[in-house]
Design goal:
mainly alpha, 4 helices
Length: about 130
């Protein structure tokens, strides 16, 4: 019975992912090239705060040998990649873009790789 539920949930995820593909075409056609965001500062501060919490939680859990560090590491890696993507995609040409790319390749993406490695190793240990 449990396997059937998991398969159903996995099927739902696949169907939802496939259903999003046409939506990408709608977005590409309908979104403006530029826009002003009302809560820009709060969005970036919130994202960076979540990254900081994720890094701290992952480190503390890993030091304590808690297998849950694999989950926080995976989530934190995702946040860091998203941050690098949005920083570089929203940066103005010139010094801002150079700074965003430098941060992405100098900090965010290497930390994301480290977190991904911790997540995979932690998952492998949990199943062993």
């Amino acid at each position: 019975m449990r396997i059937r539920r998991r398969c159903r949930a996995e099927h739902v995820l696949v169907v939802c992912g496939v259903a999003l593909l046409p939506w990408l075409v709608v977005l590409a056609d309908g979104l403006p090239g530029t826009t002003t965001a009302a809560h820009w500062r709060s969005a970036w501060i919130g994202l960076d705060a979540l990254e900081a919490l994720g890094l701290i939680a992952t480190g503390v859990l890993a030091v304590r040998g808690n297998h849950l560090h694999a989950l926080t590491a995976a989530a934190t890696a995702t946040l860091l990649v998203v941050d690098a993507w949005f920083d570089t995609m929203t940066a103005a040409p010139g010094a801002d873009r150079f700074s965003a790319v430098a941060m992405a390749f100098g900090a965010e993406l290497p930390l994301a790789v480290l977190c991904a490695v911790l997540a995979v190793r932690g998952r492998a240990r949990a199943t062993a």
